[in-house]
Each structure stands twice: as C-alpha cells, then as structure tokens.
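Troubleshooting entry. The earlier prediction with NAP gave an output that would not parse, so I re-checked the input for stray whitespace and re-submitted. Clean input:
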Amino acid sequence: LGRMLAEGFVQAGAFVYITSRDKSACETAVVEMSRSGECAGIYASLDATGIRDIGARVTRDGHLDVLVNNAGMTLTAPLEDYPDDGFEKVWGVNLGAPFALIRTLLPSLRAAASPADPSRIINIGSIGALRLSVLDNFAYSTSKAGIHILTRQLALALGPDAITVNAIAPGPFPTALMNRLLGEPGGFDRVRDGIPLRRLGEPDDIAGTAIFLASRAGAFITGVILPVDGGASARG
Ligand SMILES: NC(=O)c1ccc[n+]([C@@H]2O[C@H](COP(=O)([O-])OP(=O)(O)OC[C@H]3O[C@@H](n4cnc5c(N)ncnc54)[C@H](OP(=O)(O)O)[C@@H]3O)[C@@H](O)[C@H]2O)c1
C-alpha cells in the first residue's frame, strides 16, 4: 500500500519522501515515481537509529505537511504455537514505530501547521481491528486496535497545534501481506465474496482517501478511523 500511497501523492503534485529498509527497492521506486513527479528515498529501518535518520533528513527541509505511517507486519500462528516475541515484534513495527516517528517529526509537522491548513498525520490501521477475522493473528489485530486508539488520543493532544490525526482502516488489498490468504485454494473468491462491493481494493481507493484527508476537504477532520473496505466492516 505504501507504493500506492506514495505514487498517488507524487501524481497529485506533492514532494514525497519514501522510506524503506531495502536500499535497491527504494532506489528503483524513486526512479520509477520520479517520472510523474518529485520524490526522494530515505534508506532506513524503523528501529531507533532509522527513525533518528529519517528525522534528521526531514528536519533539514524545515517542515513536513503530511506524515503517513504505513509500514506494518503480521504474524499468524495457532494460539499454542504463537511465538513468545510475536507481540514485541509486531507491536514494535505497527504501533511503537509510528508513535516514535510522530514524536520525532513533530517539530517539522508543527513548522508547517496553521489553523487554516493543518499538518496531517495519517496512520494505516486495519479493518482487522474493526471486525475480527478467523485468522490467528493475535498480535496484528491488537496492534491495529492500538493504532486506532492512538490516532484518537493524538488527535486530542495535537488538535491545539493544528495537526490532524486520522487513520485509514483498509479492507483487503492484493499485497504481499495478503498473499497467504489470497493464495489458498479458493482464497481470492472467498475474500472477494466477503466484501459487499464484491472486489478488492485498488491503488486509487487508498491513495484517493489519503489525498482527501491531506486536502482542504480534510482540514476539519481529525480523530477518525475511516474504513476503506468496500463495506466489509459494515457486517460488524
Ligand atoms: N493489504 C491489505 O489488505 C491490508 C489490509 C489492512 C491493513 N493493511 C496495512 O497496510 C499497511 C501496508 O501493508 P501492505 O498490505 O502493503 O503489506 P506489505 O506489502 O507486506 O508491505 C508492508 C511494508 O511494511 C514494511 N515493513 C515491515 N516491517 C518493517 C520494519 N521492521 N521496518 C521497516 N519497514 C517494515 C515492509 O518492508 P519490506 O518490504 O522491507 O518488508 C513493506 O514495505 C500495513 O500497515 C498493513 O497492516 C493492509
């Protein structure tokens, strides 16, 4: 989804930083996306050092209008076999890293913020925390519930600074994260048929929603968890 989001913002005319812990993938993506606009890569992992590096690079520019926290991982295993460090790993990437990045980049976000045009934080949550699936993804669903609550709490904390904080809760999109489920026999049809609009998400669905939140139309919206899921969460 990160590529879909970054590409959407580049095409909409934003200067976009993408971050990745895979140097060559990062460089290739920058070359490809630079054909339709402006972007630069930051090669960094989401550990303490990487987050400091991202902060240092962005701070050099003086200000940041929009931060999208997209990186995420899942871990699925039967309850009895669930790895002891599963929560530490998954919560670290899905919840701890966004919190640390937000704190690190706050000065840059504050520098761009004004009441008429707030800075925007967009966290990528998940429909997996809005309606529970049959998957044994205990650390994932709880980490996503955590990012939804953190989104609302930060919206209260940062509203007076003219920074909006919202989460997009995607339904199924055909990415690496979904490969296992979609690759099972009959998996694709099962997933699609569980969606009222009878299709999976596409790049414009996620990018368009993020651009809306970052646009003038989204300036008065904060603390919202917005499902982009073809109606799947309407089932409860
Ligand atoms: N696809 C869906 O249907 C769906 C539904 C709901 C929510 N989401 C959320 O959407 C976001 C993007 O997921 P995706 O579907 O695009 O899955 P994906 O293709 O697996 O992408 C996940 C991205 O997160 C990065 N990442 C994972 N662990 C990292 C770490 N420790 N440090 C730095 N980067 C790390 C991965 O980098 P590497 O390539 O280097 O591993 C990858 O670029 C996630 O937050 C996910 O929970 C996805």
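This one parsed fine. The beta strands are 15-20, 38-43, 66-69, 119-124, 163-170, 225-228.
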